[in-house]
Every structure is written in structure tokens, then in C-alpha cells.
Amino acid sequence: MAPITPQPGIMEIALYQGGQSHVEGVSDVLKLSSNENPFGPSPKAKQAIAEAVAEVHRYPNTDHAPLRAAIGEVHGLDPERIICGVGSDEVLQFLCQAYAGPGDEVVHTEHGFAMYPILAHAVGATPVVARERERVTDVDALLAACTERTKLVFIANPNNPTGTMIGGNEIARLADGLPEGAILVLDGAYAEFVEGYDGGVSLVDARDNVFMTRTFSKLYGLGGLRIGWGYGPKEIIDVLSRIRQPFNLSEIQMAAAIAAVRDRDYAEFCRAENTRMRAWLARELAALGVPSDTSLANFVLARFADVAEAEAVDMHLKSRGVIVRRVASYGLPNCLRITVGDEAGCQRVVDGIRSFQEARR
Ligand code: PMP
């Protein structure tokens, strides 16, 4: 009998390692490992979820028109150029399914989001890594990594797990230098944390080869519901819409997202608190001799002396119920990514690192 084999590329995939949420034997756990909003979603989103539950026997709306209208209204975008997915992960998946396949290349940055190579392999394409410069996206390296086989170039801005960001001129230079037929995908999962940043809308509007993605998982505190969206040229939206499953989002997801995106006061509160506590956390870490790059996202990448120290700090924090993220699989084995919590959460992680240092003396 012929062996049963998966499609090419599938066995190349390294399983995604999600943020841990439990520690054996510890009840008071503080999870700062998945860049979640410490305040949760807007109360209006919770109310909308409760109301939408009454209609779960009905199939959801298939075209997401009310959600696209709400996003379009808030961000000043044409709803016809928006597509919604099960998290922005699904929108990234649509892009790979639609534009990349065996023999094609998908370029991403050295310390880029783990889903990029997974999604590329899943469609049989080859992920290609472009080096960064001191944990910052390097446009020259990205351009050098492109070939005539490049179909997609993914950059997250701000990037996960580094938190660093590059400016609009650099992104425009990247878009302009791409090979014919390649699409630049600006992953804006953390864009909302950056004051005055539109995630690249003006660049998308000015080019036909730039697409951007956003999420409700981070600033809006709805990671558990799985809602994301993309904005791009009409032609690309038309292509992606053909492969999107008609019922990919439930009414619960859509109702929650509509209420969340409309609650500007709450979003602004969360953004301002993140900015305030991120600065505090980076300052406290520096005072403890732990450097971090300037982060514009809702996490800080703390750098330790070596791998052994990062591991030891991670274990110590875990023993106190504080879960942060090891990022060895991102090529940063001496770093820990710490989500910006609320005031008490930030204090607890700093106290944990201080007590580690004291115990070592
Ligand atoms: N892009 C980046 C850079 C991320 O960090 C994440 C979440 N970890 C995502 C995309 C996907 O987020 P979601 O699918 O929850 O929208």
C-alpha cells in the first residue's frame, strides 16, 4: 500500500508554543506571557456578547457588513476594502493560501512572529529569513532576501517579540523595492498602542502592493474571541474573500468587536495605561540592570546576561506564579518577553526579578 503522506512543507512546521497559563501547585497566577490586555475588554463588548448569545441557533451574517462598517467608521476606511478573520492569524493565512504555494518564497524578519513560517510551510511555500539590525527590522536585509519567487513579505510594526518599530519612510522604501508581484504585509497587531500611528493606511492607499492587518486581541482585550481584520487594495480583498469561509465569524464575535471598536474612551484608557506602565516597567528593569529595547507595543523584551540567567529568572518568576514568555524559539534565548500588566502586575514582576537578584547575592 502507498504510504499516506501530508502535503510538502507540513512536516517542516515547528508546533506553535502558546503562552502558558498555569503553574503546577501555584494558585495565584499572573499571566504576562501572551500580550493580553490586563483590563479585559470594554464592558460594552461584554454586554454585546451576552446579548448575542440569545441568537446562537441562527447562522451568522456572512459578509460582516456591520462589523466592517464600524471599523471603517472609526478608522476612516472604505468598508469594501476590509476583510475580517478568526484573529488576524486567519487573515495572514488567507494571504498565504491565495498568493503563495510550492516554489514560492515568503520573507519575514529574523525575530518575526512565529506564525509567518508556519503559514508559509502550510501552503508548501518556503519561508526566507531576513536578518535584523540589533533587533530592529532592516529594510536592506529584507530587500536583499527577496527574489523573483518572493510572493509575500511580512513585517510586524511594532514587531513581536522585540517591540521595536521602523518609520513610514523605511516602509515605503521597502514597498517600492519589492520584486514585481510581491505583496508587503504590514502586521499591525500592536499598531493601536502607538499614539498617532495609523498602521500604514496611507501607504496601503498609495500602493497596490501593500496590505495591512489588525486585531481585536491586544488593545481591545478580545484575544479569547478571535477577531482580526485586514485592509488593502480592492483587488486583494476580492481574492481573499473568495477563500474565506462564509461563516468564519460568529455573531458573538462580531457583536463584541463592534461594541469594542466603538468604545473609544475605553480603548484610549487602555492605550494610555499601557504607555504609562510600559515606561515604568522599562525604567524599573533598567534600575535593576536589565536592559530592554524601546518598545512601542504592550510588552517589553528584557535582556539578561546570558541564556542561563534568562532561564533562571523565568523559573524564579514561575515559582512565584508570574508567567512571562521565553523567546528562545525566536532566536532570543537570553531574553524574556514581559507583557505590560496593570500597576499591581508590573510591580509583581519587578519584585520577582529583584528577589531573584537578592537571592543570588
Ligand atoms: N501578529 C503578531 C505580530 C502577533 O503578535 C499576533 C498575536 N500573537 C498576531 C499577529 C495574531 O493575533 P490574532 O490572531 O490574535 O489576531
Automatic annotation (TrEMBL):
Record-annotated Aminotransferase class I/classII large domain positions: 28-353
Pfam families: Aminotran_1_2
Enzyme class: transferase
GO biological process: L-histidine biosynthetic process
CDD domains membership: AAT_like (cd00609)
Catalysis: reaction(s): L-histidinol phosphate + 2-oxoglutarate = 3-(imidazol-4-yl)-2-oxopropyl phosphate + L-glutamate
EC number(s) stated in the UniProt entry for this protein: 2.6.1.9
KW Transferase (keyword) present: yes
Keyword tags: Amino-acid biosynthesis, Aminotransferase, Histidine biosynthesis, Pyridoxal phosphate, Transferase
Record pathway: Amino-acid biosynthesis; L-histidine biosynthesis; L-histidine from 5-phospho-alpha-D-ribose 1-diphosphate: step 7/9
Obligatory cofactor(s): pyridoxal 5'-phosphate
Source superkingdom: Bacteria
GO molecular function: histidinol-phosphate transaminase activity; pyridoxal phosphate binding
InterPro entries per record: Aminotransferase_I/II_large, HisP_aminotrans, HistidinolP_aminotransfase, PyrdxlP-dep_Trfase, PyrdxlP-dep_Trfase_major, PyrdxlP-dep_Trfase_small
Assembly notes: Homodimer.
Family of this protein: Belongs to the class-II pyridoxal-phosphate-dependent aminotransferase family. Histidinol-phosphate aminotransferase subfamily.
The protein, known as: Histidinol-phosphate aminotransferase
Gene name per UniProt: hisC
